[in-house]
């Protein structure tokens, strides 16, 4: 038993070293400013120059209760600005990579990438201009969370959306942070999350008057924080931006119903 545990520890150590190298390489490719159609989208234009719609994607992975290996991965695409669902794909996945704090993306991004590739093949007209993830971007202990990882791999603008604050680079849920949260009285109220080095890692944002608890928005890839916040607000009917909320609720329902076959909806 001791030998088996020792071998597992050595294997995990090797994986961690490789993931650290890969993460550093990906991080060097990060773009933290608006690209592509983002500038036009956040200017309030309802259509692209060619007359087509803007689309926002949302991704999430929901696990079977008591099981951290088998889960449902979901990608949904909503049309802007009415947030009408135009595409959704869900399927059960089996995660074989270990969970190592700070490296969650290496475990989950492959499944999300597959869903994006399916969308690209089955309904390319609905490819999203930006993807919101249930997870952080540069608001991360190593400055490269799931949203950033997914964005670099796909070459698509991404936004990190988190319900709770992750301690990262000096940003913590200390008393000062708790006091600032209490001062967020209405929708659009927020404050920057600043690292020990003075870098703005994200924003603590109240997105809805009826939802007092804020969320944490961070840049993933190919977008500025200002634009990420604008999009999060535009996509929010409730506390959680609709693309992420929809992916979360639908993947949970998929599991609750005990489904096993992939599901795809194309408007």
From TrEMBL:
Keywords: Cytoplasm, Endonuclease, Hydrolase, Nuclease. It is found in: Cytoplasm. Pfam families: Endonuclease_5 (PF04493). One of its GO terms (cellular component) is nucleolus. GO terms for biological process: DNA repair. One of its GO terms (molecular function) is RNA endonuclease activity producing 5'-phosphomonoesters, hydrolytic mechanism. It comes from the Eukaryota. InterPro entries: Endonuclease-V (IPR007581). CDD domains: Endonuclease_V. HAMAP family: Endonuclease_5. This is Endonuclease V. It comes from Lymnaea stagnalis.
